[in-house]
Design a protein that fits this description.
Length: 344
């Protein structure tokens, strides 16, 4: 992980202010369009972001680092493990809170992974980004960054797990989803609503994220298992993927978590060697567990040994399965882990 580490000195004068570290990973919030016809690219580091939001100096003593300058699509689970490690180092250095900025396309996946890795067990951790790059009128990066620091230094943020702040709204990591590709208000919490908001009265948290499920700690260098996510409607594709090295599988079904019978038959044979999680492509409602009993339905898949993903998105289910396997979870432990996130 390449480090571009600096302290932003202009906010160091008031020692009564809390110390907040901003970790910038790239994304739209760090993008500039230079008008050369090549589009916006992430080129700004954490110091640049801080300079765009002078109000930060009244909230905290800001320290900055830019572990990555990447687009959302380039953020891997291995990168998120590195970010969790950086947060742990910041906490060991005495920082009071951490704010992570990154691209919004996979922002929810980073927040969820950090939550599972226990990044917010010791200090508040807030993840934010922007829907409009810095070259556009009404760019939302600076206000989202200021709002995130306001939340991070608020006592209410402690014990909430990793939080996401976008467009003045506070979300819990396990619930937040990007639901619009263009709107500034492009994030929502499913199946429950947002935890709170930031307004003229300050930070309001009207709910609790509930204690997050934190997986067993393992050394950061522990390898990540190979877990693949596939659409659940193609038995031939499933055969080709299953023929290679594989530690786990997430199948995105239809409806309440349903697949064709040919896929269900292959799932049964696969489960003899790897865990299989079934999610749904439907945005709301999650998978079912006790309604339909035809071949390929949720009852049939459960009987064959599959674990239902509940209301987790396919991406979040893959993150949970990968990190749980990395932490040594198997069989009953895996079922319990998904149950903790998927019920309610």
């Amino acid at each position: 992980m390449g480090q571009l580490e600096n302290a932003w000195s202009s906010s160091q004068e008031d020692v009564s202010l809390p110390r907040v570290k901003i970790l910038s990973l790239g994304g739209t919030i760090a993008c500039i369009d230079r008008g050369d016809g090549r589009g916006a690219k992430p080129t700004m580091g954490a110091e640049d972001l801080v300079r765009s939001a002078p109000a930060l100096a009244t909230l905290a003593r800001i320290e900055t680092a830019s572990p990555f300058i990447l687009s959302s699509a380039e953020m891997s689970l291995a990168s998120r493990v590195e970010v969790a490690k950086a947060i742990g180092q910041a906490m060991a250095d005495g920082v009071d809170a951490v704010v992570v900025t990154q691209g919004t396309d996979t922002l929810e996946d980073t927040a969820f992974a950090l939550d599972l890795l226990g990044a917010a067990q010791g200090i508040p951790v807030v993840v934010t980004g922007a829907m409009r790059n810095a070259s556009l009128p009404g760019a939302d990066g600076p206000v989202n960054l200021v709002d995130s620091v306001r939340v991070a230094v608020d006592p209410q943020a402690r014990g909430q797990g990793v939080l996401v702040v976008m467009a003045g709204v506070i979300h819990g990591a396990r619930f937040v989803r990007k639901v619009h590709t263009r709107s500034i208000g492009g994030f929502a919490s499913r199946p429950r609503g947002a935890l709170g908001w930031i307004g003229e009265e300050g930070v309001t948290l009207c709910g609790s994220a509930e204690p997050p499920l934190v997986l067993r700690s393992v050394p950061p260098e522990t390898p990540l298992p190979r877990v693949v996510a596939l659409p659940g409607d193609d038995p031939d594709l499933l055969d080709r993927v299953a023929a290679g090295p594989l530690d786990g599988l997430v199948l995105e079904g239809v409806g309440g978590g349903h697949v064709p019978v040919l896929v269900a038959d292959r799932v049964e044979s696969l489960i003899e060697r790897i865990p299989v999680i079934v999610t749904t492509r439907v945005e709301d409602g999650g998978t079912l567990s006790r309604t339909y009993g035809y071949p390929g339905s949720e009852l049939d898949l459960i009987a064959r040994g599959a674990i239902m993903g509940g209301w987790l998105t396919t991406a979040k289910a893959r993150t949970l399965l990968t990190l749980a396997l990395r932490a040594g979870a198997r069989d009953t432990d895996l079922a319990r882990a998904f149950s903790a996130y998927c019920v309610g």
